[in-house]
Amino acid sequence: MEMSVRARIRAGDTDAFGSLFDDYARAVHNHAFRLTGDWSAAEDVLSLTFLEAWRLRASVDPEGGSLRPWLLGIATNVVRNTRRAARRHEAALNRLPREEVLPDFADELVGRIDDAERVAALQAALSRLRRPEREVVALCVWSGLDYVAAAKALDVPVGTVRSRLSRARKKLHKYAGTDVSSPDGNSEPGRGQIDGDRASAVRPIQEEAR
């Protein structure tokens, strides 16, 4: 009897894990960028996510569907951890004597500037949300997970995902006149998007849920 992909991942099959990367690297990278707003940081998160996925491979249930929610959940935790590390690093730097820093004009030449600027416009409003609310927006709206998959990714009850997304929708509407809804106007996530002129430019690249 042929082993399932999940069973092969659990068993440490490197070919299966390579296929997992090929299938979902783009989804993880896009999710990381939406949470960080930085392409370079997203690349780091992508690498760390699959390293962590390999470390945690034994925790994969042999039965089940797509491993995309599992990977996005790991990526969300990686972003949390890297932000905590960045805050500790910044605090350490702030304790050092101040020196005059000349501007690095090379920073202005980073790629994908247009995409980054459009995401930054929306993140001005997203930054006013609580972290758990930002995460459900990224998972349910941008990455298109349903409530159940997002709950598994975040390891929280489905009702918690619903309430967080509801609060996020209300706050985004208040802060930026931006609404989080599905294409038919309902708040149910799935193939969701963010409506509104400021947010339409940062709709995610279409990804196939494998």
Secondary-structure map with pairings?
Layout: H1 5-10, H2 14-36, H3 39-55, H4 68-94, H5 113-126, H6 131-142, H7 147-154, H8 158-176, E1 179-181, E2 193-195, H9 197-200
Helix pairs in contact: 2-3, 2-4, 3-4, 4-7, 6-8, 7-8
InterPro entries: RNA_pol_sigma-70-like, RNA_pol_sigma-70_dom, RNA_pol_sigma70_r2, RNA_pol_sigma70_r4_t2, RNA_pol_sigma_r2, RNA_pol_sigma_r3/r4-like, WH-like_DNA-bd_sf
Protein name: RNA polymerase sigma factor
Region (Disordered): 172-210
Mean pLDDT value:
75
Beta-strand percent range? under 5%
Q: How many distinct helices? A: 9
| Rg over alpha carbons | 18 Å
Largest sheet: 2 strands, antiparallel
The backbone outline, from C-alpha atoms, is: globular
| Estimated structural class | mainly alpha
Q: Tell me the helix content.
A: 55-70%
Strand order of the largest sheet: 1-2
Distance between the termini: 22 Å
Q: Could you spell the SSE succession in H and E letters?
A: HHHHHHHHEEH
Number of strands: 2
Q: Which parts are unreliable, with pLDDT below 50 for 5 consecutive residues or more?
A: 100-113, 182-210
Describe this structure in words.
- Pfam families: Sigma70_r2, Sigma70_r4_2.
- Residues 172-210 are annotated as: Disordered.
- It comes from Streptomyces narbonensis.
- Residues 194-210 have a biased composition (Basic and acidic residues).
- The chain has helices at residues 5-10, 14-36, 39-55, 68-94, 113-126, 131-142, 147-154, 158-176, 197-200; strands spanning 179-181, 193-195.
- It starts with a helix and ends in a 10-residue tail after the last helix.
- The model is unreliable at 100-113 and 182-210 (pLDDT under 50).
- With 210 residues, it is an all-alpha fold.
- It is built from nine helices and two strands; from the N terminus they run ααααααααββα.
